[in-house]
C-alpha cells in the first residue's frame, strides 16, 4: 500500500514544519512547500528522508496562481496522489491601526492568507473529489483566534483574512461533503514562532501570554497535533469544524 500524501504549505518553519515532522512520523509522505527559505525546507526534507520517511521540498508562492499550479503538479509527479492539504502558509505585516494601512498592504495580506488558501483548496478538491475519480481526502485550514478577537491596534486585516478562512472552511465543508472530502480548520492562539517578529514584536508571545487562561504561549507541536487529528480517520465524522488551539483564550 502506498503511503498517504500530505501537502503542507509554508512548511519551512513554525507550525508547518512541526506538522510535517509529525505527519512523517505517522507514515505520511509529505510535500513541504516554502516561499523563500529553501535551505530550511530542504534540511527538513532531508531529516525526514534520513529517518526513513518520504519528503520533498517545493518552492512556490501560494499567492501566485501559476506557482500554485506548479506546486500541485510537483506533488502529482513525485507521489501520484494527494490525500491531505494543510493550508498553513500565512503572513502578517507590521502592527498598526487600520487608519494607517494602505491598500497595497491589504492586497498582500489577502493574496497570501486568503487567495493562496482558496487556490490550494480548489486544486486539492479537483484531485480528491470522488466526482472526478479521486479517492476523497481532507483539507485542514490554519485560521487563527484573531478571526474572532479582531486584532485591534495590531492587524485587523490579518484577522479579517482569517475570518475569510473560517467562512471558506464552513462553506467548502458543505460543498464537498458528498464527494469524500472533509474540510476543517484549526484556530491557533499565540504560538511561539517567527511570525511575531514579522509583525514587529518578537517578544509578543510573552506579552500576550498574560491574557491566556493557561498562562503561556503554545508550541507549534501542539497545533500540529490538532491538525494531524483533523486530517486523520479518527476525525471521520468531523467536517466544517473550527478547532481553537489557544490555551483557553
Ligand atoms: P512562520 O513561522 O512565520 O512561518 C510561515 C511559513 O509560511 C513559512 O514557511 C513561510 O515560508 C510560509 N509562507 C509565508 N508566505 C508564503 C507564501 N506566500 N507562499 C508560500 N509560503 C509562504 O508562521 P507560523 O506562526 O508557523 O504560522 C503558520 C500559520 O499559522 C499561518 O497561517 C499563521 O497565520 C497561523 N497562525 C499562527 C499563529 C502564531 O501565533 N504563530 C497564531 C494563529 C495562526 P518561508 O520560510 O519560505 O518564508
Describe this structure in words.
By secondary structure, the chain is α/β, with parallel strands linked by helices. The chain has a single domain, classed as NAD(P)-binding Rossmann-like Domain (Rossmann fold), CATH 3.40.50. It is 45% helix and 15% strand. It is built from 9 helices and 7 strands; from the N terminus they run E-H-E-H-E-H-E-H-E-H-H-E-H-H-H-E. It has a 7-stranded parallel beta sheet with strand order 3-2-1-4-5-6-7, sandwiched between helices. Helix 1 packs across helix 9, helix 3 runs parallel beside helix 4 and helix 4 runs parallel beside helix 6. The longest helix has 26 residues. The model has no long low-confidence stretch (mean pLDDT 98). The structure holds NADP nicotinamide-adenine-dinucleotide phosphate. NADP nicotinamide-adenine-dinucleotide phosphate (NAP) binds next to helix 1, strand 2 and helix 4.
Amino acid at each position: 500500500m502506498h503511503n498517504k500524501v500530505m501537502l503542507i504549505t509554508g512548511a519551512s518553519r513554525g507550525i508547518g514544519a512541526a506538522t510535517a515532522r509529525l505527519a512523517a512520523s505517522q507514515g505520511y509522505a509529505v510535500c513541504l512547500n516554502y516561499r523563500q527559505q529553501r535551505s530550511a525546507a530542504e534540511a527538513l526534507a532531508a531529516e525526514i528522508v534520513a529517518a526513513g520517511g518520504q519528503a520533498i521540498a517545493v518552492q512556490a508562492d501560494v499567492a501566485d496562481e501559476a506557482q500554485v499550479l506548479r506546486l500541485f503538479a510537483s506533488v502529482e509527479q513525485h507521489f501520484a496522489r494527494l490525500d491531505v492539504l494543510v493550508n498553513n502558509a500565512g503572513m502578517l505585516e507590521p502592527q498598526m491601526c487600520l487608519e494607517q494601512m494602505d491598500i497595497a498592504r491589504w492586497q498582500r495580506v489577502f493574496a497570501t492568507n486568503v487567495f493562496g488558501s482558496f487556490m490550494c483548496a480548489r486544486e486539492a478538491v479537483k484531485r480528491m473529489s470522488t466526482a472526478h475519480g479521486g479517492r476523497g481526502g481532507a483539507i485542514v485550514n490554519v485560521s487563527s483566534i484573531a478571526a474572532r478577537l479582531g486584532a485591534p491596534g495590531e492587524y485587523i486585516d490579518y484577522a479579517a483574512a482569517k475570518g475569510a478562512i473560517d467562512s471558506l472552511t464552513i462553506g467548502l465543508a458543505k460543498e464537498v461533503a458528498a464527494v469524500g472530502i472533509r474540510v476543517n480548520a484549526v484556530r491557533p492562539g499565540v504560538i511561539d514562532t517567527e511570525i511575531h517578529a514579522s509583525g514587529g514584536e518578537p517578544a509578543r508571545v510573552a506579552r500576550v501570554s498574560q491574557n491566556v487562561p493557561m498562562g503561556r504561549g503554545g508550541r507549534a507541536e501542539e497545533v500540529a497535533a490538532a491538525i494531524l487529528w483533523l486530517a486523520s480517520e479518527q476525525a471521520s465524522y468531523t467536517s466544517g469544524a473550527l478547532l481553537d488551539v489557544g490555551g483557553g483564550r
